[in-house]
Write a structure and sequence with these properties.
six-stranded parallel β-sheet; Rossmann fold; 307 residues; Elongation Factor Tu (Ef-tu), domain 3; 7 helices; 30% strand; multifunctional enzyme; elongated; six-stranded antiparallel β-barrel; EC 2.7.7.2
Length: 307
């Protein structure tokens, strides 16, 4: 799959296109992309827009990571600014027709197009003028609830990561780079990897999580602390740090893809010193091991390929 942050013409062949923010790549988005990849004799092309005004479930890097092994021909990872001021008609003519040689557009049934917010039925009539058809995919529902990016954001805030995973189609993902921290984990005999994430990433609820870290082809279970560290310092800056179970190598500078499996507990301050903190950490790790045993060999269950 070719990934580019520049909108470029498709010159060799005709295309089947889907366009949107695809924030979270949830099961509804996956249904659209799966249909996109089934267009016969057309190149499947995804236009993924980044939201510049609010925190995102998944960054463009995380979307690319989840899509990289699928059947897409091209992914245009673009700022919304590139097309947000286009009317539906100008988008159909200038981008879909002239640049991408589009013959089929795939969209969710509630999709809106252009600055003028044209619905699917209206856009279908515009498509006829420029030589492409519009196919729609129904909304996905789980337990009677329509799956949407806004619903998932609220569920993340609520800390219900089992429900989040069911709506996303895989475990919630955080990508970042391992950076130097204060070395606080060494006090407890548990060095942690401090992970720096993108500024526009939706920050999960503060707490302790069971997790999987994936980097350089390796997969490791871990315990991840997200938020403040009231028992260690009073710095009011939340962090993401993960302790990898049965692992003791230096991974500074590595790109890590962290999956949050289960919420263990909230952040709390321990007044009993290092011994009390260590005692609680041991309880947390035991709970994570129990979760792992109950849910099988999760290390081998990589994020599901999309299309």
């Amino acid at each position: 799959m070719r990934i580019t942050d520049k909108l470029q013409p498709i010159t060799n062949g005709e295309s089947c296109v889907a366009v949107g923010f695809f924030d979270g790549l949830h099961v509804g988005h996956r249904a659209v992309i799966d249909r996109l990849c089934k267009c016969k004799n057309l190149r499947p092309v995804l236009i993924s827009l980044s939201n510049n005004s609010s925190p995102v479930i998944y960054t463009e890097e995380e979307k690319s990571y989840l899509l990289q092994n699928g059947k897409l021909d091209t992914m245009f990872s673009l700022s919304e600014d590139i097309i947000k001021n286009m009317t539906a008609e100008s988008f159909a003519h200038d981008v879909l027709n002239k640049m991408l040689n589009t013959k089929t557009l795939v969209a969710g049934e509630n999709a809106l197009f252009g600055l003028d917010q044209v619905d699917v039925n209206h856009f279908r009539s515009i498509g006829k003028k420029y030589g492409f058809t519009v196919e729609t995919v129904p909304m996905e529902c789980i337990n009677g609830l329509e799956v949407s990016s806004n619903t998932i954001k609220q569920t993340i805030h609520d800390g219900d990561f089992s429900k989040v995973s069911s709506m996303l189609g895989s475990s919630y993902l955080i990508s970042g780079t391992v950076v130097h921290g204060k070395g606080a984990g060494h006090k407890f005999g548990m060095p942690t990897a401090n992970i720096s994430i993108a500024a526009n990433k939706l920050f999960p609820p503060h707490g302790v999580y069971g997790s999987i870290s994936r980097f350089q082809g390796e997969n490791h279970f871990g315990m991840t602390n997200i938020g403040l560290r009231p028992s260690d310092d009073d710095i009011p800056i939340p962090t993401i740090e993960t302790f990898l179970l049965n692992f003791d190598r230096d991974i500074y500078g590595q790109k890590v893809f962290l999956e949050l499996l289960v919420y263990i507990r909230g952040i709390r301050k321990f007044d009993g010193g290092l011994a009390e903190v260590r005692q609680q950490i041991d309880k947390d790790i035991k709970q994570i091991h129990s979760y792992i045993e109950e849910n099988g060999n999760l290390l081998q269950v990589k994020p599901k390929e999309i299309c």
